Amino acid sequence: MRWSHVWHLGIKEFYSLGRDPVLLVLILYVFTFSIHSQATSIPETLNKAPIAVVDEDRSQLSERILHALYPPYFLPPERIDTATMDARMDRGLDTFALDIPPDFERDVMAGKKPTIQLNVDATRMSQAFTGSGYVQTIVNEEIAAYVARHKAQERQPVELSLRIRFNQELNKSWFGGIMGIINEVTMLSIVLTGAALIREREHGTIEHLLVMPVTALEIMLSKIWSMGLVVLVAATLSLIFVVHYWIGAPLQGSVPLFVAGTAVHLYATTAMGIFLGTMARSMPQLGLLLMLILLPLQMLSGATTPRESMPQFVQDIMLLAPNTHFVMLAQGILYRGAGFDVVWPQFAALAVIGTVLFLSSLAYFRKMLETQQ
Amino acid sequence: MREPVARLQGVSLVYGKTRALDGVDLDIPSGCRVGFIGPDGVGKSSLLALVSGARAIQQGKVWVLGGDMADPRHRLRVCPNIAYMPQGLGKNLYPTLSVAENIDFFGRLFGHDAAERKRRIEQLTRATGLFPFLDRPAGKLSGGMKQKLGLCCALIHDPELLILDEPTTGVDPLSRRQFWALIDEIRATREGMSVLVATAYMEEAARFDWLIAMDAGKVLATGAPHELLERTGTETLDQAFIALLPEEKRRGHRPVEITPLPADRDGEVAIEAKDLTMRFGSFTAVDHVSFRIRRGEIFGFLGSNGCGKTTTMKMLTGLLTPTEGKAWLFGKEVDPRDIDTRRQVGYMSQSFSLYDELTVRQNLELHARLYGIPKEKIADYVQEVVQRFGLSRIIDALPPSLPLGHRQRLSLAAAVIHRPKILILDEPTSGVDPVARDGFWNLLLELSRRDGVTIFISTHFMNEAERCDRISLMHAGKVLVTGAPAEIVREGGHESLEAAFIDHLERAAQEGQQADDTQGSTAMSGEERKRTAGLTEKAPVRGTTHTTSFFSLRRMLSYLVREALELRRDPIRLSLALVGNAILMLAMGFGITMDVEDLTFAVLDRDQTTLSQSYALNLAGSRYFSEQPPIADYEEMDRRMRSGKLGLAVEIPPGFARDLAHGKPVEVGAWIDGAMPSRAETIRAYVQGIHAQWLQTQARERHLPDPTLATIEIRFRYNPDVKSIVSMVPAVIPLLLMLIPAMLAALAIVREKELGSITNFYVTPTTRMEFLLGKQIPYVILSLLSFVLLLALAEFVFRVPVKGSYLALFLGAILYVMASTALGILISSFMRSQIAAVFATAVLTLLPATQFSGLIDPVSSLEGGGRLIGEIYPTTHFVVISRGTFSKALHFRDLTDAFVPLALAWPILFGLSAALLRKQER
């Protein structure tokens, strides 16, 4: 193998990229506005949850509860009556509907422990859980404060003091920004290498390369380093300028360590791109394959929903995907400030996955070149 | 002269900096065969594209068939009377469709009914000898057959004006002769049909009625061939053509003088092949071919298209491994893994295979580098070939902007840049003008005679074959005859090499060997001749309706049928779309879940009493948490949390039990990993709940004061068990029906643009609406099939039944897949390259559909740009419909809010696509 071939063929890829302005604009978009909108549009866990209140008590206490439900957690509550409650929920207008029964305040003061009903649209899983917890806490606090003003009240025997580590305010945009980068890195590296390979095949240039003193390994390495570098540079710039300065997320750990991790991840994903490029026979087939691969990589890697909650077999299968390890690595370094001593298993896993993908792509690629006619 | 068929006045055309046509004034006579001759890149193709209406007029006036081609109404009216075959072998054909299906498509487009189409297909294919191959995919035809098929497609609608752009370039002499015989016969029966042809073959041009010689975007001379000869005082058209050129272009030209191969080269053998055989499945492409070529010899390979020339060459380069037999280069056996022998060989493939994205100079430099030419010499080497091949004027141009002849020169320059000892050239001069061809042969002779380079070349030009030291005639994988050209002519007693060639081929075909692969080279029988005549008789045409209306269902259907056929020919794509969706549904449905369970936690218990243990047990007993080994100190806690192994750490202070018993205030500490905010929120809610529960239990057991004032009863509606599956399954269906359909449709148009068949849309009376609808509907149907499959999965595998109205769900699904495929179509009409379309589709669907459409977070809770996208994105509305009908038992009237925007999506996206799609090339 000659490194100069790998180098010059890689340089050629940059020219190809440079000739496609639409592609350049898309890359720019993906690492700037797309990341920004991903990071900032996703709400804090409970943000502007639509809530409606059926106030059958119309007391001071019920009024107090109503006023305690305010933005940003909730949209200003709608006052409705029992009759319209169901219809509104059916149409998806409210996630929560709180029903305060008649004589509620009187019963509370009398120590009768009356019951408030909270209806939750449980198809909206993300709000249903945490939101009902919020409503519960707010209602309890309001009742306790109201009662405390009118009546001596014992305090709780054991207080729970909760502290959140690494991201005290649970700022979701910090999280969204970095997970956005992870998703874009994966998507871009697979699309660019896979499509570059298909294009060479459809235009017959691969065959032409093979009559020259160039090997399959050189062709493959040249695509991997050039496309990997494009994505690596774009991702690093995006991390610093978009996520850190524009969105304002603090970067806890070592950025160089994260960049090194990204490079190892790219090794795996670009090899995967080559693999898909050899499997697909045409660009339309590649397009579909991409969707089939990218969607699970994005949704099941732990960047969208926590890994712990997935069924065991999904968790196990996803351990084979580079994304899963990259997400762990990124969370470790960038949120928890972990060093190499902590995240080395992820580095190792990515390197192993990358090598397996690389070797099998190389084998497939060679086979494809031999049999193509 | 009669009324001209086309008249050009002051027509100019500019591509970027290149001036393709420069103020052309021209009257093209009607009812005859008009030939366009001229060097490469002088604007012949551009002129023909303007006359056909494929390209938009920039400057000047073009009248064709009595109307202005700048007027779209006139174009729509006359395009059924014009047939246009663009340059390049089979460029306007659909490679996966069979011969019959290709012709059928054009037949439908021009309004023939089924019976009429059948009749015409049979007649046309019988006349062209394609009849035995009706079911063969167009992509698997040889070059000559492709051109004949292209002609069939062009002739099916009885055009008055037939425009052929280099129709016989790269076609063997026999097929070429048949091709012109066919055109003559058709013209004989169709009085008044005009044929405009651009050609590089002067012997063809000599047979035309009227010639137009062009150079540098201008018309040099017009007139009948004999007039041109008289005017220039030359004997052959080749010479006349050269004489017509301006002085500075002629200066470089030097007639080819063949010097005999010196015999003293001690007979060293450069290339040897013995019983080379290549089989593809049951088909034998090359059948025991043997030859020996001496060093410095120019060895020509002739034969019909598809006879195995290219395959033999590929075996010599090591690109293909022979099934049987061996080949040696300089006594060394050909080994694909042997990199060093590749350095001694220069190869030029039949189709252009250099990089379109690199300029001429960059392509040459890349070749020089890959062939290992030392860095400091690269510039010299490049300069040398640039000069030899006359590339200096186009050194910074990109290959796609160059005419065929210039691209061929570039390919050849790249093949010889490293000064190889052997040159293998597969039809290097196809499409190159006579001047350039002579220059090229001078160079080959120089290489051979002076430098001792061995040249193995295939060609369709007889005058080139005559210049070879020896030639082989190949047919159906076998070598028919080998020898010096003059010897072959003499032995058979023929008058020319062409006659000898055709005679050999016809005899071989009659022997009936591999009739299947002789591309029907049998001459037309008398009966067939009559049929051909019948085809073009001006008899009343049955079952044919010419409509030039704004929308024609029939034309739309012809595109629809074609698109559907192409889809059916690609079972991988079909199954990816259907099975892939099902697999994704299973993965997503089970995988995306909000039920946060098995959260890891560990306890730092500084009290170590039964009470403190009961607190920890209470947490461990919950299904939400899974306990890890206890923590010893803060340092360990920090380390374990940093590594992400603990989601929650709980610290119970010393004296916890004692203080609680004494009624002193006690505080339990809990640390939550905030790296993933949504998970942290959930943990917080769980811990609070479990803490409160523990307090209540303690209150009951130890008679401590119960702090409860009121209870809040939570009713989880629609999904009482709060199972993610119930929430996710109805939302995953919309997600999948966005991604896959959009990607399917996204390549539909851009692929035609990249591969060239879009020309059919430019030059036929198809309107944008018909074209777009025909493209979209097959994908809508496929996506609906996919929807039914997903619905079945939801009901029977996930056990998430539809509680509401099926009708509303179905209607929603139809509107939705119309929108998602229209999004793909929109991307496809806008983009220029497939790669960009794939990328854009991934960007424009994945993010909005997964993040901004209420799949996980409701749209009403989103912020900023994401919120805006979410509000208008079709997925949002179908998620509402899907969740509503699945989980909430809703009906049509409850969902009007979602149906209205969904119904609007298609017209908007479709309208935009129509606005962005161009009906002519610019």
What general outline of chain B do the C-alpha atoms trace? elongated
Average pLDDT number of chain B: 83
Sheet with the most strands, sense and barrel status of chain A: 4 strands, mixed
In the CATH hierarchy, the third-tier topology of the largest domain in chain B is known as Rossmann fold
Commentary on this structure:
The complex is a heterodimer of chains A (373) and B (922). By secondary structure, chain A is an alpha/beta fold. Chain A has two domains: 3-42 and 171-371, no CATH class; 51-150, abc type-2 transporter like fold. Helices cover 67% and strands 8% of the residues of chain A. Chain A has 15 helices and five strands. A four-stranded mixed sheet of chain A has the order 2-1-3-4, with helices on both faces. In chain A, helix 4 (60-68) links the parallel strand 1 (51-55) and strand 2 (78-80). The longest helix of chain A has 32 residues, at 340-371. Chain B has five domains: 6-251, P-loop containing nucleotide triphosphate hydrolases (Rossmann fold), CATH 3.40.50.300; 269-344 and 421-517, Rossmann fold (3-Layer(aba) Sandwich); 354-419, no CATH class; 553-588 and 723-916, no CATH class; 599-702, abc type-2 transporter like domain (abc type-2 transporter like fold, 3-Layer(aba) Sandwich), CATH 3.40.1710.10. Helix content of chain B is 48%, strand content 17%. In chain B, a hairpin with a 2-residue loop joins strand 11 and strand 12 (283-294). In chain B, helix 28 (748-755) runs parallel beside helix 31. The longest helix of chain B is centred in the C-terminal third of the chain and has 30 residues, at 768-797. Chain B is elongated, with a radius of gyration of 37 Å. The model of chain B is unreliable at 513-543 (pLDDT under 50). Chains A and B meet through helix 1, helix 2, helix 3, helix 5 and helix 6 of A and helix 12, helix 13, helix 22, helix 24 and strand 24 of B. Strand 5 (158-165) of chain A pairs parallel with strand 24 (666-673) of chain B, so a sheet runs across the interface.
